[in-house]
Amino acid sequence: MYPILLVLLSALLFGASTPACKALLQELDPVQLAGWLYLGAAIGAAPGMLRRGQRQRVKRLDRKNKLRLLGAVSFGGVLGPIALLLGLRLASAASVSLWLNLELVATALLGYFFFRDHLGRFGWLGVVGVLIAGIILSLGGGASGVAAGLLVALACLFWGLDNHLTALIDGITPLQSTFYKGMVAGSFNLGLAFLLGASWPAPELALGGIMVGILAYGVSIALYITAAQQLGATRAQLVFASAPFFGAGLSAAVLGEPLGMAHLVAGVILVISLILLFQDQHEHEHTHEAMAHEHTHRHDDGHHTHEHPGMAPGQRHSHAHDHEPTTHRHPHWPDLHHRHAHGESEES
Fold first, then answer.
1. How many distinct structural domains can be found in the chain?
2. Which band of pLDDT confidence, cut at 50, 70 and 90, is reported for residue 10?
3. Global pTM value
């Protein structure tokens, strides 16, 4: 239940960014706004980075995890937000919020075909249900232009890749991943915007972009990564599919954009789809090879048996730790310890 609540809070914060960004795009260039948003994400993560003395840990990542981090920065921090904001400038905030359900479809299909993220019968029913909910919402919102829809779909594809890459990074914490993504992508996007001729904005506009970034991209991303490492990217993304509903609701409340029966029907379908999704665990005997990595964990999950004097078994924390080889059988999701295709008995 804990990771599900984390994803829901992440979705609320990200959903709120759509109407907020729509207002900021009245004055800011999309590429420049993407830069302020991700610099805000880095600023939001910076205090924790400095407090915990984690600045140098990324240097200790192995080559595979460095490539994952680079891919997450490129797809999720640079290409995804630029495509989304270009689409948002062409369409209403409510319509763009609804189209963001396509991120779920992209994440599920990429996961199944490329990232060894198992989906069973209930899981696919959940995917189809969320897609139907998104279609109903999109039809209810009316047409907003083919160009805007294609841009948002492209952003969702980029974020689908980002979702899987960040869920697989096991050498740094979600806080670190958020900081590096925000700093690199934010600086790159701002530099690109000024290179393309954007002018320096009024201080309140830059501050507005940074504040949205701190909450909707910084805090939200850190919460999402934490949950995705426990649920797997596809399942975390299915819960995160509630973000468009939050975005559409806030667009109606703040910007006066209409909501109707389509939103109620789609909401019911989404809830049913999420229930189906979480029936989709699978169980078989599998072997964990010896490994060393770092991620958030607790000591009552059957995989983390090292001891911390004075720490409760259910207390969540993060540090580098080793795993001894073990073979067992239990229901599981495709988290960091169970990344294998259906039918495999060996962990990779």
1. 1
2. very high
3. 0.73
